Amino acid sequence: MRQVWITRAGPPEVLRVREAPDPACGPGQVRIRARACGINFADIMARLGVYPDAPRIPCVVGYEISGLVDQVGPGVRGFAPGERVIGMPYFGGYSDTVVLPALQVFKMPAAMSFEEGAALPVVYLTAHHMLRVVARLREGGKVLIHSAAGGVGLAAVELARAQRCTIFGSASPAKHEFLRQRGVTHPLDSGRDVAAAVRAILGPQGGLDVILDPVGGRSWTEGYRLLGDCGHLVAFGFAAAVTGKRRNLPRMVAEFLRIKKISPLQLMSDNRSVSGVNIAHLFHRFDLLGAQFASLLALYEAGQIKPYVDRTFPFDQAAAAHDYLQDRKAKGKVLLVP
User: Peptide bond preceding 23: is omega within 30 degrees of 0, i.e. cis?
Assistant: First the structure.
């Protein structure tokens, strides 16, 4: 099999394609020949050496693939060679052949492309978990989605749009018209004061019901102040700590120090909530994630969601793919294709 390896911590050029023997299925496992592999911002942080969950470098990362079943292990029912499936590995997804527990494999809808299949798992599960399970976004609520043109951002926009919400979405101005077309009510310039722009629209008495924030640092502090009664801030990333193509520890420390410390007493007094979501830390709970994934596939078949794939890159252009995503050029998902 062919894999894309992080050979050392550093810029995108540290990514290399390497050959390895094909893995074999054990009991309860399914082997998939991948047709597309998703890239997430966590992969970039792993490449920089600042993602604590990642395997020790050198390593292969990647959380989502789509492809064809080509081997089924003993004890597995419901899968057969040749079936089109989506897989959710806990790392190791930058591979053209992946072996997974059957619980982490899902059949693709007939109309879904392999590219859509690889673009769905992590970003849509993260958005669904934040909005529907953690924050319990109400019908017609007001939601602010940071990095709204990214993979998780666009997934959250679709889910919030399905609930007829007023959607504020931050992104670079070049992506604002695209966001309007996707359902964002108020595109906001991520390079300016997002909090001030939200206040100008809501007025002095207004407040947000839900904020989804993968930026971190000062952004979390400002976001908390934007919440209305019973408002909920969900943190799901720390992108503010990543600048440039190499690790910047002073910047990470500076952004960490900008995070507001909030006591339970203040939360109680303000009638607000703060939560954190790392969907990869729930990979041991597919009894929970499996039901949510089934809901997402039903939403896809009902035409309420449709993953947006910006670009695909072959394995040997993995460095260019990381460049494209880290430079904030992408809208929606960026994929690797074996």
Answer: no
